[in-house]
Amino acid sequence: DDDLFSSAFCENSEKLINVHLFALAAKYYSLSNLGVCTPLEDVLEALKGDREGATGIKPDEFMNNKKSHEVQMMSELVDNIANYCGIKQVIDIGSGKGYLSSFLSMQYNLKVYGIDSSSSNTNGAHERNRKLKKHWRAYQSRGGKILKSQGLEKANDRPVESEIECKTINEELLNNASTLKNQDQVIIEDLVPSCGFTEMATPNINTGSAASLVTGGQSHETKLSEEVLAILNVLPADAVEDFSSSHYNCGELSEEEKTQRKMTSLKTKGRKSSESNLYFPLTSCITAETELSDIITDLEDCMMVGLHTCGDLAANTLRIFTAKPEIKAICSVGCCYHLLSEQFENQEECHDQVWGFPMCQYLKDKGWCCGRNARMSACLALERVAVGQMLPTESLFYRAVLQVIIEEIYGVTKSDRHVGKTFSKSSSFIDYVRRSLKKLELDDSKLPDSCIMDYYEKYKHRMNELEAFNMLKVVLAPCIEDLILLDRLCYLKEQENIAWSGLVKLFDPVKSPRCYAVIALKNQSCT
Question: How far, CA to CA in Å, does 341 sit from each of 148, 371, 495?
């Protein structure tokens, strides 16, 4: 009841007088309570039909827990949408380090173009592919040496010993993979998007190899070749070198084995020639007016994805989707709401500018404005605070007192420069203030240490007030985020060429606070 909730504020002063009612109102207007979200399970069930989901690579040991969760959840949804609409090309906007892009190409065999405005990100993606080749060669080389040192014989000649030897080989190979992983943590972090072969190797080698060797009468060499080739099938075609039979020439091959290897080699070369690359990192700044065909020469029917597209990029991604006939579907998770541009924030007439908020005609007609403070609040994580991950009160206090200093001492109320993550690098409040002033290009020589500490002492007794104020912002945060998300959904609902659109809670909000995906499919995508 709007009238009931309005009594949380004093009618005359408009100050908050009932915190409990304020919290209830915030909960009432949350997405989960409004009932506007489509459950992820329902979406997947509708998309899959009778089709079995893919199984295989798990990125847990190659990514941090948050990124692994995001990539697995989103890639499964994207694959189901792509299959439903009969498309194989995916464009990942704001692809960053390529975690999602490379996993989509590796796990689901989709052709992915990852577009990022930062050349360092796209260069990093190329470098990770290069490092994967280097480590894969080392993996192959080590496996070849083990084979030669073991002096393997046909499994059907010595079945019991063969089983033992096979286990030894497999343990050696897995230990080798583990050694590679531990060699250099930085390199492994770079390998995150393209790795996964140890996950595939583990079940195949540990459970199937010995039994197959004993009962099937195959050589260790042939079986190992098949294991490695099975692994190659899940990697991007350009991520590894051709698997050559010369690497494992431990004895004469039968005609059947020679034929099998020749066919495998031809298949590998054919795959490389037809799909020379499954993941293409590209550098380009994306705006609402971007022509994708200028960036992607072989643009075909595709879908667009974005995992935590920042600020206006999320809004522009939706605009490109609605405008380009080649793009049949979209799955977008936005973030960094504080960086959104707002049409009605500064009351300046800029007729040609494309704004991040509002998008839908309904809010435009009302001249709706959030303001930067509200958008900053939308970035807070209520679910994390609810499970005990409290706000960084001290750093927020430092920043609040710094704001008083720069306004009273320097007369600055607005600046295009940012303090950034100065708190974590500072040894004291004095150090924090001086570092911050340098970042803001303000002369700190006019401010003695004693003056800085005077400000600290003046306000430190109000730290509890600041903490309470920030907790109120946290409670309100979902409502502001909901407004931004519903604006995007309404924009899609206003378009005539959209068959279905919805909001889906895709991630666990404790692991990944920006957890809602905006999803849409065009009319012709399902015909």
Answer: 64, 9, 22
Helix axes of 159-183 and 119-150: crossing angle, nearest 10 degrees: 150
CB 250 within 8 A of CB 221: yes
- Per-residue model confidence (pLDDT) at position 178: 40
**pLDDT tens track for 256-268:** 665 565 455 444 4
The sign one gets for the Cα dihedral 462, 398, 389, 335 is positive
* Pair 114, 99: CB distance under 8 Å: no
SS (H, E, C) 441-509: CCCHHHCCHHHHHHHHHHHHHHHHHHHHHHHHHHHHHHHHHHHHHHHHHHHHHCCCCEEEEEEEECCCC
Q: 392: cis peptide before it, omega within 30°?
A: no
Q: What is the mean pLDDT of the chain?
A: 75
Compute the distance between CA of residue 274 and CA of residue 258 in angstroms, rounded to an integer: 24
**Nearest by Cα to 364 from 355, 375, 373:** 355
The pairing of beta strand 89-93 with beta strand 302-310? parallel
Whether 220 and 150 have beta carbons less than 8 Å apart is answered as yes
Query: Can you say whether residue 86 is alpha, beta or left, with left for phi > 0 and alpha for psi between -120 and 50 degrees?
Result: left
Contact partners, residue 51, CB within 8 Å, separation at least 6: 83
320, 304 Cβ separation under 8 angstroms: yes
Average pLDDT over residues 421-442: 95
- 464 burial class (0-12, 13-18, 19+ CB within 10 angstroms)? exposed
How crowded is residue 192: how many other Cβ atoms within 10 Å of its Cβ? 22
Which single residue is written with the structure tokens 């595709």?
302
Question: pLDDT tens digit string along 387-428?
Answer: 988 888 999 999 999 999 999 999 998 888 889 899 999 999
Q: Is 107 exposed, middle or buried (0-12, 13-18, 19+ CB in 10 A)?
A: buried
Domains and CATH numbers, the chain: 19-138+277-379+479-522 (3.40.50.150), 388-460 (no CATH)
Report CA dihedral (477, 481, 483, 486) to the nearest 10 degrees: -150
- Please report where in the chains the tokens 């990539």 appear, as a residue: 71
> What six digits make up the tokens of 181?
């992983």
How far separated are the first and last CA of the chain, in Å rounded? 44
pLDDT in tens, 454-478: 999 999 999 999 999 999 999 999 9
Q: What is the spatial distance between Cα 487 and Cα 91, in angstroms, rounded to a whole number?
A: 23
Alpha carbon 244 to chain centroid, angstroms: 35
d(CA 233, CA 225): 13
pTM over 0.85: no
